[in-house]
Amino acid sequence: MENHVFAAVLAAALLHAGWNSVVKLGLDRGATVLLLAVVQAVIALPILPFVSQPATEAWPWIVAAAALHVGYKLFLVEAYAHADLSQAYPLARGTAPLIVTVVSFAFLGVSFAPSALLAILAISLGIVAMAVKGGSGRRMGGKALFYAIGTAVFTASYTLVDGIGARVAGTSSGFILWMVVGDALGMIAYAAWARGPAAFSAMAPAWKTGIAAGAMSLGSYWIAVWAFTQAPIALVAALRESSILFAVIIAALVLREPVSGWRWASAGAIACGVMIMKA
Description:
- By secondary structure, this protein is an all-alpha fold.
- It has one domain.
- It has helices at about 5-25, 30-45, 60-80, 85-105, 115-130, 140-170, 170-195, 195-200, 205-230, 235-240, 245-255, 260-279.
């Protein structure tokens, strides 16, 4: 992976941890992720006329990506409702690169150097290890596990669809911007069906966190999808999940969640994986 791509993905990781922490802080997380999606679309729409438009054959990929991002957000909200950030985030994000790697190798014909596989494994296992012991000392319940693992499946799925779709589209920017518009439409439709007018009135108290989360999420996503067109999807996905290092620091310093020595040791494994990938 070239230096500029590596640095960009690390920046995306920081932004990703930031917006997840904002969602965790939101009093009404459902309203926060709805506002997040709307903010992304509001930013995207004025830019769309000035970027290259996706190839016709990319539209099924854009629709699929938007649907997967909606599912991801809904599961993410439920995961955070049932577990600490420092529990749910590692389990949800750590298993996704492993899924992407297996699918890339088995079905997409992608081959990996031994060092790349070692880096992916170190990052993923380090992340998952963080979820083994809850920062608060409590065990994750069945619902928390279900939604965290479900979030991981959605993450792996949209990662693959985003990466392939952006390449088919011939423009990462056009793909990204149309996808976030579709994502917003899907979130609005779901909110109207599930909560009615209350979903939209609940956005008002969360507007500050929603705008911050939306801007960070779009920036992180834009960088990641561009990187998918520059390097193997599985490598980008694994490196992006180094965001857990930032998430643990935020959990400890901002959210005041207890972070054990086990977690810091796991963070060391992730850092080793990042260094192996860059070597």
